[in-house]
Design brief:
The complex is a heterodimer of chains A (241) and B (567). Chain A is mainly α and 241 residues long. Chain A contains 14 helices and no strands. Chain A is globular. The N and C termini of chain A lie far apart (45 Å). Chain B has a five-stranded antiparallel β-sheet, with no helix packed on it. The chains are: A mainly alpha (241), B mainly beta (567). At the A-B interface, helix 7, helix 9, helix 10, helix 11 and helix 12 of A face strand 14 of B.
């Protein structure tokens, strides 16, 4: 692991794709490590080595978005679109930039393009649902978020925004129901405390850990005995257009 | 005003983050040295990475001697290990404002130099004698000081029945049962174990975060009216909400005339305690959309700003968070609850790299809408942003924020060169708001960890007129904490809630400040007193500080209608 603030190493630079990949992988590692400036520099190197590789521009934008540099991210995303107008991830991150500016309609346009390419991507559908909620189009938000639950019935973000959307409609019965489901599926924050000592003693394991939750502490009062909690969806069920 | 020979401001063209705005280069002038405000905060850092070093401390604007100008109280750390632990020379300090605008250190004579490991301060008149009293939160026992009315204070913690041995942070005085006596709410953080050691990503020792320690229930003290308090945390339901509290504000969020509480928690869901009017509270933050971020995840809630930032006559909330999480603006949507509008209003992106603490809404330029200030500083070591005179805390130091509200739904981050408040790179925590020189605008008091406290005088060339209103409850002989002040100005209604406890670990000017734009007079002033009665006062001219006393206006009917939370 590179210490924070240490200079980015000078790899032997060739025009071979392998070199570009190494810089890209290095940037991804720095991004995951939280070194946003280091990641940005590494990804910019990728764009120098292979300007026609759209992912390079997108990855610079990802680092800049995390840093709050929306203007700088948009510049990179426009370049990515010039290289490849159909790369779904470009549209996704462009939508995030637009959303952060409150340009909800434009953000939705880009998210729809991403969803068309990856109809079962619940991260994208959650973003669509959230923006519809922010636009106070609660019925459309609910419709979109229900699709997320057909993909993953335990999706926390979907349950949370469904709760808010039902409240927006004044449907308190369903809002309460989604609140119960949210509480059932959310990670137990006390797990952080319980596992604190182990995590401190094993930092490597700490980096790899996954959130856990159990379903016992928040029973579902409306659930009939013997009935399954979930129903999963086919593509047709999602009514993807 | 008391200028102390500083140059007048000059208009310059200064760029800001997402626009080019004409702003004044002298928005704030740092006057600490000129006014003899000499305070160096010392968290007692000794290389052990004692976690409380990374949290404190707060500050307060208060008029403890009732002479009409604001004095200053600054909370300090303490030695916490080795032989010095029991005899720490560090003290909180009280500075009295003199008639010429300078400050005198009156700590010793006042008896307010608490030696505890200081975190925050709350200010309120607990015995309705007209003198404000002071509550100090500590890592260790909190302390309550009664103002004797002669420039001195007496520690009455024990006889008052106060006993909070936990890690107290922000606290607020408010009258939850409307009996006329100010009650007290204290946030408690975590059950910290100093033996635990934590490391940063590079494996170097650093301050622990809250994740490894259990939260502690906040405390609600009922004021018995006889100089004593009773812990009603369990009876009121507050004790059920065990979490990691750092910030708190009190206001009547649902317009039922009973004050509620909003608590920001570190890494856990925030709480909106709706007063049930029977001595109990119910947390409705989750259902009302004010507990979590857009993804349904809890964030590291720190400081809280409270105000009607969109001038729709209800109270909005702004919460500061740790770096990598954006600060959050929860806009009140009336009966619906709250909506996270951080991105749309321009407040999310700029905050992502920074860790925010003290914060508050105020009308910086008197254009009639509320602007915003944020004090930033890290809780774990990061990239150096300073280039010279590097000290221990500079690895935690960040610049602060000033946002200007354009009145059309966006906040714009002002360029750091617009003000030393924004350009100084320090490890800031507490931030207090008040008109320290009584010239009609809001000045800032900044508490830095491991650095001097700084007083910033507002010298911006204003866009409009102003009014400052002190609301005084003659029946109770004190400021009307919990009152709502509404101005009717040229068809607009501008309102403020009297609640000096906001920001982070800090207490603020008790008076309501209004920017009026080009209006030179106010049609009428409506006061909704804490007991629910409403009075209207005849119109007044702008650009003055007025005191409105209960009973001297004409009775009127409240225009507020109750919202969610009570049947």
């Amino acid at each position: 692991m590179r210490p924070a603030g240490a200079p980015v190493p000078e790899f032997a630079e060739t025009q071979e794709p392998l070199t570009r990949e190494r810089w890209n992988d290095y940037g991804i590692g720095l991004l995951r490590q939280g070194d946003l400036k280091g990641a940005e520099r590494a990804f910019l190197k990728v764009t120098e080595l292979e300007p026609d590789y759209a992912d390079g521009w997108v990855n610079v934008a990802r680092a800049r978005l995390q840093e709050g540099n929306i203007d700088g991210a948009e510049d990179m995303l426009k370049k990515a679109l010039e290289v490849d107008a159909n790369l779904a991830k470009t549209h996704y991150f462009y939508a995030l930039a637009l959303k952060s500016r409150g340009k909800y309609d434009e953000a939705l346009e880009h998210l729809r393009k991403t969803a068309a390419a990856y109809p079962r991507d619940r991260v994208v559908r959650n973003q669509i649902g959230r923006i519809l909620f922010l636009k106070k189009d609660y019925e459309s938000a609910i419709s979109e978020l229900e699709k997320v639950l057909k993909i993953d019935p335990e999706d926390l973000q979907a349950h949370y925004n469904l709760m808010l959307s039902y409240r927006g409609l004044g449907d308190m019965e369903n809002a309460r129901k989604e609140q119960t489901l949210y509480l059932r599926f959310k990670a137990d924050e006390s797990a952080q405390t319980i596992t604190g000592e182990v995590r401190r003693e094993n930092p490597e394991a700490n980096n790899e850990r996954q959130p856990i939750h159990e379903h016992v502490s928040v029973p579902l009062p409306w659930e009939e005995e013997g009935k399954t909690e979930y129903s999963y969806a086919s593509d047709n069920d999602l009514n993807i257009k | 005003m008391k200028r102390l020979g500083l140059p007048i401001s000059l208009l310059l063209f200064v760029g800001c983050v997402d626009c080019n705005k004409e702003v004044n280069s002298n928005i704030f002038i740092e006057v600490s040295e000129q006014v003899k405000l000499d305070f160096q905060h010392d968290p007692g850092a000794d290389g052990s990475y004692f976690m409380p070093e990374s949290i404190g401390s707060g500050c307060a604007f208060l008029d403890y001697d009732n002479d009409g100008d604001l004095d200053i109280y600054l909370v300090n750390g303490a030695r916490h290990s080795g032989n010095n632990a029991s005899q720490s020379p560090l003290r909180n300090r009280l500075f009295r404002q003199e008639p010429n605008g300078t400050f005198s250190d009156v700590t010793e004579v006042s008896g307010l130099g608490d030696p505890g490991y200081g975190m925050g301060v709350a200010v309120g008149d607990i015995d309705n004698d007209g003198n404000i009293d002071v509550y100090i939160t500590n890592y260790g026992l909190d302390v309550l000081y009664r103002n004797n009315g002669n420039g001195t204070f007496t520690n009455i913690t024990k006889e008052a029945g106060i006993n909070n041995p936990h890690w107290g942070c922000s606290a607020v005085f408010f009258d939850y049962n409307l009996d006329g006596y100010l009650d007290l709410f204290v946030t408690n953080y975590v059950d910290y174990d100093p033996a635990e050691r934590c490391m940063d990503r590079s494996g170097r020792p650093d301050y622990c975060g809250p994740g490894g320690f259990p939260g502690v229930a906040d405390i609600l003290y009922h004021n018995n009216g006889d100089g004593t308090f009773s812990d009603v945390s369990t009876k009121s339901g507050i004790a059920k909400g065990v979490s990691k509290g750092l910030g708190v504000v009190s206001a009547d969020f649902n317009n039922d005339l009973f004050p509620d509480l909003y608590v920001s928690n570190d890494g856990e869901a925030n709480q909106l305690w709706i007063n049930q009017q029977d001595g109990t509270f119910q947390d409705l933050a989750l259902l009302l959309g004010a507990a979590l971020n857009a993804a349904g995840h809890a964030e590291a809630g720190m400081g809280i700003a409270l105000g009607d930032m969109d001038s729709d006559n209800d109270l909005d909330l702004f919460i500061t968070h740790v770096g990598s999480e954006s600060n959050t603006l929860y806009r009140s949507e009336g009966d619906y609850g709250f909506q996270d509008e951080s991105g749309a209003m321009g407040l999310a992106g700029p905050s992502l790299p920074y860790t925010g603490f003290g914060t508050g809404f105020f009308d910086l330029d008197h254009d009639g809408d509320l602007d915003l200030a944020v004090a930033n500083g890290r809780i774990s070591r990061g990239t150096l942003l300073k280039t010279n005179n590097i000290g221990y805390w500079d690895y935690y130091a960040e610049p602060n924020f000033l946002f200007e509200n354009d009145g059309e739904g966006r906040f714009h981050l002002l360029d750091k060169n617009s003000s030393p408040f924004a350009s100084l790179i320090e490890n800031s925590r507490g931030l207090a708001f008040g008109d320290v020189d009584n010239d009609g605008d809001i000045d800032l008091l900044l508490a830095n960890s491991g650095d001097p406290a700084r007083l910033f005088r507002n010298d911006l060339e204003k866009k409009g007129n102003w009014l400052i209103v002190r609301v005084f409850d003659s029946d109770l002989c004190r400021d009307a904490v919990g009152a709502r002040v509404t101005l009717q100005v040229s068809g607009r209604r501008l309102s403020r809630f009297i609640s000096p406890g906001y920001s982070f670990l800090s207490s603020n000017d008790h008076r309501a400040h209004f920017g009026l734009g080009m209006d030179t007079s106010i049609d009428r002033v409506e006061i909704q007193w804490p007991d629910g009665s409403t009075e209207t006062f005849a119109g007044v001219r702008a650009n003055q500080i007025i005191t409105l006393k209960k009973g001297q206006g004409s009775k009127s009917r409240s225009l507020q209608t109750a919202k969610y939370g009570n049947s």
